[in-house]
Write a structure and sequence with these properties.
single chain; alpha+beta; 7-stranded antiparallel beta sheet; 6-stranded antiparallel beta sheet; 3 helices; 42% strand
């Protein structure tokens, strides 16, 4: 009963947050980038279930224009994830979110994010850089590395729900799945106690005058 109550509770829990505590500061521009131009950045993550990346872009125009990016996630020379992202960007810096099927076990692995400007763009595009130097290496523009302290302004995201939330929680607990089972028993037991207390009949005392 306690485990079932915990499973039901976790089933309705979702998790949507960046995987880095510090946010990048997208204050410098990389570009202009023509169609086919690219920026790459190596990175590592400390948590499980990586499901997306956020980067920042702007267009060299006063108007908002439809733009496409090809986003690729590499491990070595192997493409792990790839998608086309379609978005409208203008002169102001825009957040671009790329969501993909979860990479469940990224810890201890070195990846590379590549963002390529899609074909058909008639105006230059800029990707934003950060000097916070949170990522390994440096941003690489069209195959040329920038300064060692310059990163692509980007951060990984984790958006999971239901069973994946349970598995991700297990990965962060001492003892893994066994630790999660203990936690679920404790949570379920506490929930069961509260429900029993609420359902318990209350005695009403009356006095005769």
């Amino acid at each position: 009963g306690a485990v079932l109550a915990s499973v039901v509770l976790f089933w309705f829990v979702s998790w949507n947050a960046p995987m880095y505590a510090a946010a990048p500061e997208p204050i410098f521009s990389i570009g202009p980038l023509a169609p086919g131009g690219s920026v790459e950045q190596e990175f590592e993550v400390a948590g499980s279930y990586m499901t997306g990346w956020e980067f920042f872009a702007r267009a060299g125009t006063e108007q908002s224009l439809p733009t496409s990016f090809i986003a690729r996630l590499y491990e070595g020379e192997a493409i792990v994830r790839q998608d086309e992202i379609k978005i409208r960007i203008g002169p102001d810096v825009e957040s671009v979110r790329w969501d993909f099927d979860a990479v469940a076990d990224p810890v201890g692995r070195r990846f590379r994010l590549q963002v390529v400007v899609g074909e058909g763009m008639t105006r230059p595009v800029f990707l934003m850089a950060s000097l916070t130097d949170m990522l390994p290496g440096s941003a690489v523009t069209n195959g040329t590395p920038t300064g060692a302290h310059i990163d692509l302004a980007a951060r990984p995201w984790r958006e999971i729900r239901r069973l994946d939330t349970l598995l991700a929680s297990a990965a962060s607990l001492p003892g893994g799945v066994a630790g999660l089972a203990v936690l679920m028993l404790a949570v379920g037991g506490g929930l069961g106690y509260v429900m029993a207390a609420v359902a318990r009949p209350v005695a009403i005392w009356t006095t005769k005058s």
